[in-house]
UniProtKB/TrEMBL annotation:
Its main location: cytoplasm. Transmembrane segments: none annotated. It comes from Mucilaginibacter paludis DSM 18603. One of its GO terms (molecular function) is unfolded protein binding. One of its GO terms (biological process) is protein folding. Keywords: Chaperone, Coiled coil, Cytoplasm, Stress response. This is Protein GrpE. Residues 32-66 form a coiled coil.
Length: 191
């Protein structure tokens, strides 16, 4: 009976060892599969990141090229604008130039001065009207307090107390273009 018992124990031990080796094989297979799956996930994540990087680089290059084209186009438009900025004013002044030519021809044969003066006054009014429609306004300086931001003092003369620091005479008119000084008035200041 002992022999039989010993044989049964050996058989159980062999079965247990076989079962343990089968279990350990299953566990190691599962671990290997899990590691392979992790490696595949890492490779796919790396490929996805590479694709995203390539897409971002492509987007950056396109945006840079678009900005460069925009910069060139606006620079070209700015140059064209500067070259033709005065075109509108010049074309509106051409009729005044024509009127002056007619006035010069009329002065050559004129015997009476009064109609010539009236013609020149009409041309001047026409010119003033065109320039004022473009935003040009004359500056009123005579009798005003001297302001270095608006007036250019040419000389000063002794004046009474009521004219001290004020513009006594205007040698050359000053002008505003859309409320910005385009020419300072040349004035004589009372001292």
């Amino acid at each position: 009976m002992l022999k039989k018992k010993k044989k049964e124990d050996e058989q159980t031990s062999v079965d247990t060892n076989e079962q343990l080796s089968d279990d350990s094989q299953t566990v190691s297979d599962a671990i290997l599969e899990e590691k392979e799956q992790q490696i595949q996930e890492e490779i796919s994540a790396e490929e996805r990141l590479k694709a995203e990087l390539a897409q971002a680089n492509d987007k950056y290059l396109r945006l840079y090229a678009e900005f460069d084209n925009f910069r060139r186009r606006t620079s070209k438009e700015r140059i064209e604008l500067l070259q033709t900025a005065g075109k509108e004013v010049i074309t509106s002044l051409l009729p005044v130039l024509d009127d002056f030519e007619r006035a010069l021809k009329a002065m050559e044969t004129a015997t009476d001065v009064v109609p010539v003066k009236e013609g020149v006054a009409l041309v001047q009014n026409k010119l003033n009207h065109i320039l004022s429609s473009k935003g040009l306004k004359p500056m009123e300086a005579k009798g005003q307090v001297f302001d270095a931001d608006l007036h250019e003092g040419i000389t000063s003369i002794p004046a009474g107390d009521d004219l001290k620091g004020k513009v006594v005479d205007e040698l050359e008119k000053g002008y505003y273009l859309n409320d910005k000084v385009v020419r300072f008035a040349k004035v004589v200041v009372g001292n």
